[in-house]
Amino acid sequence: MLISIGYSACHWCHVMERESFEDTQVAELMNAHFICVKVDREERPDVDQVYMAAVQMMRQQGGWPLNCFTTPAGEPIYGGTYFQRDQWINILKQLAALWETDPEQVQTYGRQLTEGMKISALLPANDSSRRPEAIILEKVRENWSTRWDKVNGGPDKAPKFPLPCNYLFLLHYAAATGHAEATQHVRLTLDRMSAGGLYDQVGGGFARYSTDAFWKVPHFEKMLYDNAQLLQLYAEGFAFFQEPLYRETALGIIKWLRFEMRNTEGAYAAAVDADSEGEEGKYYTFDPIELKGAGLWERYQKFYHTGAEARWEGKLIALRINHSAESQREPEYWQALSSLNTDLYKLRSARVAPATDTKIVTSWNALLASGLIAAHRYLGFDEGLWDAEAILSAIDPEIGRPLGIPLKHVLDSASQTKSFCEDYAFLIAAWLDHYEASFRETSLERAEDLMQIAFDRFYDSAKGLFFQTAFDQDDLLVRPTEISDNVIASFNSVMAQNLARLGGYGKTLYSDRAMRLLWGVEPEMVAYPEGYGNWCDLYLKVMIGQPQIVITGPDANKWAEELRSSYLPLAEWAVTTTPSDKALFRNRFEPTKTQVFICQYNSCSLPIANLQEATQHLKSPLFYALGT
What pLDDT shows up at residue 132? Predict the structure, then answer.
């Protein structure tokens, strides 16, 4: 068999499709010797994970289009990503000949590789009762910092992917420790990403990655999952650094999502293509003659580079000039830039726009719900909470549904109704975020319900980790899982975070399971931290004692709004104005008195009944345990 995996917005998938799959000679050769199966990775991430793992074992790298040749049983024997037409024809002929002359050798290799895939999915046994060590995070930072680009931000290589969960961890690490180098690296990266071509200066939203080391020339496709996570990153970046640029970037993401990606039910489309009219980036670049003809050239020069540094294939990529921090703190600056961008948007809207993949992916929409809630919390963007609630209503409409009824991975797909662990992982996280924004206990209860379903369907207690597919799905060669974080955090790391959070709200058994997962990845986390950013974030949270801020009493909501002006991203919040039997509120409610309880390392402070005193306590660097 030939299993070819791609997605709608993948530029090189379209190139290989045009060059090879739609070529009559190549298609005849493929169909004469192989059963050819085309898979949309967004519909079937489980299939993608199985064969991506196989290709990575064979070639130490992967990507899309993902092409994997298998035995009739689906066991992988050869694979890779994009192949040129002539190269592809040679591979087809060689594999066909090998199968004809020595099928036993092919099948033996397939069985051996499959066994290797099963072994690689295991975590080592570990002791969940251990405690984290500060030296581990120091090693993580030291190892990682040797691969930071000190000039352009991000990693010291190209292409450059945003990898939001990595920079969320580094931002949280900077907030917790005050470490100067980590703080500077996060700031530099946020600055450079938002000023470059990776960010659509005119229409908002980020492209998938930069093809160079300077964040200049993007791979122009836009993915919902990138922008969902980058929205949270820039919202938190604004909370920490108080840079107006970060606020404007976050709001630009929201504006693009609302205007171009939202459907009538309040959910959001999956992706936008890189190509239009068969040309990558045509929609997003400008010709100086075009700008002059539209009367925009002089204004354009005030905000965007026009020299060689901004040129790409004869056109201009909008690269924002780095004006002084003082000018960027003036409302007039952003008003003038916004006015220019509005006119530029009108100009390019006359072109043929790239196609939008309108399917609704549950896990990605859950990620966006969390991003919008972050915008509500850290930017004061009230509509962010409303938009997040619309998403949650669309992707998880029956809050009171009986346990065991599965979610749907792609909402608008008639052919695919399977749910995956990633859907539960990100949806649980979104409901927990919603609880900490709204303090509605029904949201916390929904997260608890979904976690129970996830355990029943996806958790292997013997191995101590979650699998992507449910226990009763048997149509794959191996049961796929993922441990390392990538452009999206792995569902096991997200589940570990969810378990730790729920443990803090009284589900103590979940805390042990979170730690079992965390200790299983600790050696890899230290050796290659950029592949374990969300795990590092959990380690940091446990390291500082999983802080919890509990507020009870008649003015609890008002106090919470005031106290949350401090940037405390790793703390859990629990707030109630009425009596509650939840674990954190038990024996802590007085109807005539508002009180704050600050809990850390499994113990809590005496009640603080003075708002000013509580504020000073939370702003103290002693709140975090790592010091500087």
Answer: 79
CA angle (66, 71, 73) in 5-degree steps: 105
pTM for the predicted model, two decimal places: 0.90
Angle of CA points 410, 160, 361, to nearest 5°: 5
- How many angstroms separate the CA atoms of 200 and 111, rounded? 46
DSSP designation for 261: I
Query: Computed from CA positions of residues 256, 259, 260, 264, in that sequence, does the dihedral angle turn out positive or negative?
Result: positive
Judge contact between 435 and 444, C-beta under 8 A. Answer: yes
Query: CB of 232 within 8 A of CB of 172?
Result: no
| CA-closest candidate to residue 219, choices 306, 161, 140, 297 | 161
- Domain boundaries defined on the chain: 2-120, 134-278+357-543, 284-350, 548-623
Q: By the 8 A CB rule, do 49 and 121 touch?
A: no
**Is 134-278+357-543 in CATH node 3.90.800.10?**
no
Q: pLDDT tens across 135-156, in order?
A: 899 999 999 999 999 999 999 9
Separation between Cα atoms, residue 361 and residue 374, nearest integer Å: 20
* Across 549-574, average pLDDT: 93
CATH code for the structural domain at 2-120: 3.40.30.10
pLDDT in tens, 419-462: 899 999 999 999 999 999 999 999 999 999 999 999 999 999 88
For helices 491-504 and 421-438, the axis angle rounded to 10 degrees is 40
List, as one string, the DSSP characters of 274-332: SEETTEETTTT-B-HHHHHHTT-HHHHHHHB--SGGGEETTEE---B----HHHHTSHH
Question: Which has the closest alpha carbon to 490: 431, 537, 546, 434?
Answer: 537
Determine the average pLDDT of the residues in 164-168: 97
Which pLDDT does position 620 carry in this prediction?
62
SS3 78: strand
pLDDT for 130 equals 67
DSSP-derived secondary structure letter, 257: I
pLDDT of 117:
75
Residue 65's SS3 state is coil
Nearest to 562 by CA among 575, 578, 546: 575
Q: Is the per-residue pLDDT at 129 higher than 70?
A: no
Which residues have CB under 8 Å from 443's CB, separation 6+?
Answer: 431, 432, 434, 435
